[in-house]
Amino acid sequence: MVSQHGKLVLADVFGMPLEHVLSFVPVESVVAAISSSKFLRIVACSDAVWGSRCDKLWCGKVYVPLHFREIRGMSRLAAYWGSLTDSRRCSIMAHSMAFVAIKANGRAVTWGYVAYGGISSAVATLLKKGVVRVCGTNGAFAAIKANGSVVTWGDADRGGNSSAV
């Protein structure tokens, strides 16, 4: 890590950028490192580390659960949409200092620092069921529900308040 004009810049390690080096480290070691260092967490969560691997894995592909693929006469688009709204899916999303997990029953659970959207108590009743997707900024999250509604929380200046929309 090198400071240039007051900003942190990733230094090369053995002629390779740190993001590239992290892509060869076992996942368990990356998890241990990011839990102890905010800098390594930022590096490890960047698209530079995992983007190319995800692109290779998912290029031209969409994950659709088997039970949707087995329905005769269902178009690929309908199967994909059905899989997005299927309550058996679960995922986790993180940024900076907050996390949100979508449980198998469609409930979103949050934790982390309040200033980064880690506490969702103001909208907790809206996140109890039907959440199908979550995205976030550095300070706020937005959840898309199965009924098409959007729920936001976190820092209002960073997207946590969508009441004007």
From TrEMBL:
User: What InterPro entries does this protein's entry cite?
Assistant: F-box-like_dom_sf (IPR036047), RCC1/BLIP-II (IPR009091)
Q: What is this protein called?
A: F-box domain-containing protein
The organism sits in which domain of life? Eukaryota
User: Which species expresses this protein natively?
Assistant: Polarella glacialis
